[in-house]
Amino acid sequence: MRQACVRPGITVFAAVLLFASATTAVAQVQYGSIFGRVTDATSAVLPGVEVTVQGPALLQPMTVVTAESGGYRIANVPVGVYTVRFELAGFSRQVNEGIRIEAGFNAEVNAKLALSTVQETVTVTGESPVVDTRSVTLGTNFGKELLEAIPSARDPWVILEQTPGMVMDRQNVGGNQSGQQSSFAVHGSSSNQQWNLDGATITDMAAGSSPQYYDFDSFEEIQISTAGGDASQEAAGVAINFITKSGSNQFRGSGRVYSADKRFQSLNTPPEVAAQGGGAGNPLKNVAEYGFEAGGPIKKDKAWFWGAASKQDIRVGILGFLKAGAPAGSTDPDDLETDLTKLNNVNVKLNYQWTKGHKSTFLYGRADKIRNARGASSTTAIEATTRQSGPTPMWKGEHQWVVTDRLMINGQYTYNGNGFLLNFHSDELANVQPLSFEADGISRRSGSSSNNIRPTYEARVDSNYYLADFLGGDHSIKFGVRYRSTPYQTISKTGGGASASFRLNGDAWATITRNGHTSRDLWEYSAYFNDSWSRDRVTINGGVRFDRQDDKALAANIPANPILPDLLPAVDFKGADSEAVYSDFSPRLGVTYDLRGNGKTILKASTARYYGLGIYTAGTISPTGQTSLGYWFRDLNGDLFVQRNEIDFARGFRTTPSSNYDPANPSSVVTPAKVDLNLENDITDEFLTGIDHELMPDFGVGMSYIYRKYHNFQATSRDVQGITYTPVTMTRSCGNQTCAGESWTVVYYQRTVALPTATILRNYNFERAYHGLEFTARKRFSHRWLMNSSVTWNNAALHYPTVLDYSPASGDPTDFDNVNGRDSGGLNGPRWVLKLSGMYALPWNMSVSVFYNARDGFQFNRTVQSPSRPGGAGTVNVLIEPQGATHYPTFQQIDLHWDKAFRFGARRVSFNVDAFNLANAATVLGRQTRQDFPRANYVTTILAPRVVRFGIKVNF
Fold it and tell me: Are residues 112 and 144 in the same domain?
């Protein structure tokens, strides 16, 4: 649409109005942009050229006019493929076809128009930009081609796994882990994750994770960012944006059925697993999925609709999760208890173009998960698992206003009704105490429950403004504000109000637990401004954002514990405010340089500071969180249950009570825990540099170096002044034959007096430094093939300047020397990560694709356990060697996909076959790390066996 340029006064007024109206934004957006410069045959700039973008994803074409500098920019272009047309009277018309837009991608499309006295058109094809000349962000966009072509378990978390450098905590073989949220890490961190749906923030702030599960075929694209975010991105963690499909002027859709069954599954149980009675590895029993999606016009060029519905039924077995009476060592999956997950999803989207300058979108979704045995494992009996249920409704309203061809404003409001119930495996277990024996480490007899209520509300405005030929260059400015509220409640209970544990030496202890009920609200207010200034070959991205985060503990009440109602009485809490607030300014600066001036080779560098997501003081100051008191007890009647008369009060607490409990005033509605009023947010400082190069049309390669420093963390600590820790040397032997008679001499620390109950939430001096080198190669589908590959080298080292800061919860210096300065463990432990995926189109409408995933094995940090220590310190597991000295085997998995299509007019029927874990590897992924008990080194997780999945999909 051709409109007059906006006057500077109007621009300033609009900016002020937007900043005053609310608050933030996230780098994750559902749109890209098209920009460039138009010149004549002599390379002189051409102002006044009409630039029109048209494609199936647009209700109506988008039109702007080039500025005095010859430059133009069209923001908020939906994901899709477009034609860009350049027209000016007296010049030939140029049409660029096949311009691909991904979320967050800036496509540079330049034009050179020749003088012409007749109407003629120059058509340019096959030159869709591969390299983003204005962005320093690292990550991957998975469009429909990658989502459909590369073999996967059709779960968003397995798409995350294909991202460069990404490390997952579990391996999904053919769907055996679908419906479960994997934890993941990249570039030295697994925290501060940002989840978005169509550009709206949906992160579950109580868990830092996704609030729901998804219909895989509802996605047009999945955008994943891992580093280099500009001022529109709040935190340094992985940012995920799911972009849903939309209707169009043509009715189209698809339906599908997929099935993976144990009949088409191999066996891969290693002899040691069979010998320990673990059963058939981690096999699936059956994974079935069916669903459809369709959309089209309500009125062409005016209103569209799209909708989708799907169901998944996931039945798997878990290593060691044996049925009662099942023969030990059986390799039959039917001898394992079934871990059942059901996922149901419904989505509806409506698009309406009011006028040329106004467009609205409404999205509604409902996701539901039902699971029968959450927590199932080799050390959890089925009665100790929980049942999960809870639908998550979500809706979002969005309006886009094209004020002029230089200024565009986008406003939206989102509600997500996140919540779920984790209930006892059966109702009658609510009054049954859990039980465990040190001899096998298995939790049995009962478990716990929690009701989690976590809705989120977000209102935000984001704007784009193009300012040409100012201060020597063109400016692409974006700015925004956001308000977000994320209240949550957790109501928790332990079966029977107590649990009983029995040690090998005959000792027994009781953990008496009062129900918990915590309620809090978290408010976020944010604003950002980012300017991308371009001149000749240089683009400078500078920006700043402000984030204010505040929380408050809300009113809650809990009943008395039935065993110790005098020591754990009922509490009626009226609410409290810690008065700690995070107010953070985050600067961002990035530079790109077009090495040859043709947009094909880009040097880039950036530096940034990010702050953490969420402030969590409400839990610290709430006295109604679940409270536990640990005592020694004697099972006088031999029933393995805890009664009051069996508790040995004379020996005092076995472990220090929960920090929200005051032994001197058990019914207090004021917790002894405090919050430092000067508490600050955690910080990530980042520097990256690299090069991106278009090797050939549709094929780009890149190399990046990433440095990050994670610091200023918060932790709850107790006052250890005046308390002396005494080193104690002990020798422990292996608990079974797996260690070949080894024994270890280690040092642990004990104190003679108990720590004070009172704690304080404060910052402590711990740092994690990350260095990474990443190589990527990505080929869009053309000339019959596509590819998406990467290799990443990692080093993430820990640094604890003082013993106190190593273990702030207790001041216990145990293992300080074995951890300080060592490589980070957990998901940050692998030293290298390799991804290789690709697809080739064969003759006769067939295709074949592969995904090869490999990484360094996780750290296997072996420990032995101390005796119970005086002063309520309990036991401690002590490393027998420096952290990271031993690793699990290298992990490798290869998956294969074959597809054959038949066409019947506009319909396309595809039959496909996927083989997961093609080599049928039985890689050990987890073992019992404690060495001095009977199940030392027992395998807890292996890679699930090879399985074949069959599917049929109809596109119309």
Answer: no
Rounded to whole angstroms, the Cα distance separating 828 from 784 reads 37
Render pLDDT for 839-879 as a digit per residue (tens, 0 to 9). 999 999 999 999 999 999 999 999 999 998 888 888 889 99
- The answer to whether the CB of 442 falls within 8 A of the CB of 381 is yes
329 located within any domain: no
- C-alpha dihedral sign at 776, 781, 786, 788: positive
In a shared domain, residues 73 and 169: no
Could you tell me if 35 and 69 are in contact, meaning their C-beta atoms sit under 8 angstroms apart?
no
SS3 content of the chain, % helix, strand, coil (to 5): 5, 55, 40
- Decide: pTM greater than 0.85: yes
What count of residues does the chain have? 956
Cα-flanking dihedrals φ and ψ of residue 621, to 5°? -95, 5
Distance CA 755, CA 749 (A): 14
One-letter amino acid for residue 635 of the chain = D
Do 758 and 673 form a contact (C-beta atoms < 8 A)? yes
Q: How far apart are CA 915 and CA 353, in angstroms?
A: 45
Distance CA 591, CA 611 (A): 22
| 109 shares its domain with 144 | no
**91 lies in the same domain as 225:** no
Q: pLDDT tens across 798-809, in order?
A: 887 765 434 444
- CATH code, domain with 107: 2.60.40.1120
Tell me, yes or no, whether 191 and 90 share the same domain: no
User: Residue 485 burial (CB < 10 Å; 0-12/13-18/19+)?
Assistant: middle
Residues 789, 665, single domain; the answer is yes
Tokens of 953: 């999909």
- Tell me: pLDDT of 612 over 50: yes
Q: How far does Cα 58 stand from its chain's mean position? A: 30
Give per-residue pLDDT as tens, 243-265: 999 999 999 999 999 999 999 99
Residue 17 falls inside a structural domain: no
Alpha-carbon distance of 483 to 838, in angstroms, equals: 42
How many structural domains comprise the chain? 2
Spatial distance between the Cα atoms of 246 and 58, rounded to a whole number of angstroms: 10
- Please check whether residue 502 is in contact with residue 511, taking contact to mean a CB–CB distance below 8 angstroms: no
Residues 501 and 623 in one domain: yes
Q: Cα–Cα distance between 234 and 24 in angstroms, integer? A: 8
Q: Is residue 2 part of a domain?
A: no
Q: How far apart are CA 100 and CA 78, in angstroms?
A: 10
**Is the dihedral angle over the CA atoms 143, 144, 149, 151 positive or is it negative?**
positive
Three-state SS at 218: helix
Q: Give the burial class of 530: count Cβ atoms within 10 A of its Cβ; 0-12 exposed, 13-18 middle, 19 or more buried.
A: buried
| Cβ-based neighbours of 620, under 8 Å, separated by 6 or more | 578, 659, 671, 673, 674, 675, 716, 759, 761
Structure tokens at 674: 């405090």
Q: What is the pairing mode between strands 581-594 and 877-879?
A: unpaired
Q: What pLDDT, on a 0 to 100 scale, did the predictor assign at position 329?
A: 65
**85 and 206 fall within a common domain:** no
The answer as to whether 268 is a domain residue is yes
Strands 358-374 and 303-316, by their bridges, are unpaired
**Residue 187: how many CB atoms within 10 A of its CB?**
28
Domain coverage including residue 114: 28-136
Chain centroid, CA 424 distance in Å? 27
CB 917 within 8 A of CB 947: yes
Q: Are 939 and 278 in contact (CB under 8 A)?
A: yes
